[in-house]
Amino acid sequence: MGDSIPAIDRLAGKRVALWGWGREGQAAFSALRELQDGPASLTLFCTAEEAEQARATGGGGLVVETGVSAERLADFDVVVKSPGISAYRPELLAARARGTRFVGGTALWFAARPEARTICVTGTKGKSTTSALLAHLLRAGGVRTALAGNIGMPLLELLHGQAEAWVFELSSFQTRDVADSGRRPDVAVVTLVHPEHLDWHGGEHRYVEDKLSLLTGAHPRVAVLNGQDPRLAELELPDSRIAWFNREDGWHLRDAWIFRGDDRVLDASGLPLPGRHNRLNLCAALAAIEAFGVDAAPLAAHAAGFVPLPHRLQRLGERDGITWVNDSISTTPLAAGAALEVYRDARTVILLGGHERGVDWSVFAGAMRRHPPHGAVTMGASGPRIHALLEPVAADTGMQLVAAPDLPGAVNAARALLGDGGGVILMSPGAPSFGPYRDFTRRGRHFAELAGFDPDAITAIPGLGIS
Asked: Which residue of 8, 77, 139, 230 has the fewest CB atoms within a 10 Å radius of its CB?
């Protein structure tokens, strides 16, 4: 949005503020404090809950304010904004109109590291697994690889790191940062595009526009795209070469086999990648490796050693005849439907609902009618609307349907629905966690605790950083 972003060392001497004190904000603070001739102090805008910890961490070099306004933001030349803060907030737009520049840590990293060879991965679903697979396979091939971004490590934490390949998972909150940096990724991967985060973006059109700015604005040298996604299939990218996956002339899936064109490469049936969608993520990763200039076919077999990521169809284990599956990353009905498809043949109770964003659940309800699970429990702010939509499905198919106020209540209800017969309790909410939980990670940890598992033992993300 606007002119290209200055490298971080060019912020010295400017009036700079931070907005947001999550891990991204703390990484930006550390990077700015390293500057020679940097500001003697920085102003931080954050929530009241974050303020005490921020003051302790920042010491005398951080002035903390818990209120934010257009007038106050306009006092600064540059505001480094955390990704979770919408770029369309009224006070931000008003301050920008008065000359304040708003940048993200992703843009600052790209502007500071023009020599880096990067693979950027985005998509409504599958971006984390695809990114982790990319790093795993490249490392298996002897390539020193960084794995960072929305997957769990801000890029600025690796500002001075050295790698041969930089693999970044980017949310729709970060993709425009790459375009704004003025740097072209070597490879950009888009797994699929489906409406999500409409509250942050202000509507479906803007969400799609922001998500695809990684292609249309950043102009990657190679765009690796899902050939079966209608929005991607109609794109024209004159500045990029397009490599398709999930299409017969590229890396694709036939039954349980991974193919590269007409060449059968790998039997995926025994891989630790549950569901067709996860095997398509492997196709995306292999296509990206090839686009990066590395022979992908010999690396495909190393997918057998991949450690699945937490909160993504994560099988926690079994307790009292019940298999517990944590899919807390599921924040859309599309994701919940894909998760349920994996457990179609099991005696499954699915937990649905969370933050209410007004998204359409009708396609999901149609799939439930065709292949009803043993039961469904609705919960959270969106629970009543989902419950009302599923009541006719339950009446017509015999699926058991229960409403619960929250996650603990949903877990108890699911146990009761399974009774002594055992089965699967699948938490794939199809909605964000906001409200009771700060993020999907905390929701997944709470689910693990309620199921009787140690959350610390099951939530570490393998492979972050450089190796």
From this structure: 230
DSSP string over 253-319: EETTEEEETTEEEEE-TTSS--SHHHHHHHHHHHHHHHHHTS--GGGGGGGGG--PPTTSSEEEEEE
CATH number of the domain bearing residue 368:
3.90.190.20
Beta-sheet pairing, 257-260 with 251-254: antiparallel
Domain count, the chain: 3
Domain shared by 355 and 226, yes or no: no
Give the DSSP per-residue string, 211-241.
HHHHHHTT--SEEEEETT-HHHHT---TTSE
For 99-150, how does the pLDDT look when each residue is reduced to its tens digit (9 = 90+)? 999 999 999 999 999 999 999 999 988 999 999 999 999 999 999 999 999 9
In this structure, are residues 25 and 85 in contact, taking their beta carbons and an 8 Å threshold? Answer: no
Q: Give the separation between CA 191 and CA 245, rounded to whole angstroms.
A: 9
Give per-residue pLDDT as tens, 317-376. 999 999 999 999 999 898 999 999 999 999 999 999 999 988 899 999 999 999 999 999
Question: In which element (H, E) is residue 425 found?
Answer: strand 423-427
117 shares its domain with 260: yes
| 228 shares a domain with 191 | yes
Of 214, 163, 156, nearest to 190 by C-alpha is: 214
Tokens of 252: 């694709």
Q: Are 108 and 5 in contact (CB under 8 A)?
A: yes
1 occurs within a structural domain: no
Residue 463 lies in a domain: no
Q: Can you tell me the distance from the alpha carbon of 280 to that of 266, in angstroms, rounded to the nearest whole number? A: 13
Radius of gyration of the chain (CA): 23
Helices (H) and strands (E) in the chain, counts: 17, 21
Report residue 431: phi and psi, to 5°: -155, 150
- The secondary structure of residue 438, as a DSSP letter, is S
Chain-centre distance of CA 258, in angstroms?
24
35 CB neighbour count, 10 Å cutoff: 15
- 165 near 139, Cβ under 8 Å? no
Angle between helices 48-58 and 23-33 (to 10 degrees): 30
Residues 120 and 215 in one domain: yes
Task: State which of 103, 128, 161 marks the end of a domain.
Answer: 103
Single pTM value for the model: 0.86
The CATH number given to whatever domain includes residue 159 is 3.40.1190.10
Whole domain around residue 226: which residue ranges? 113-308
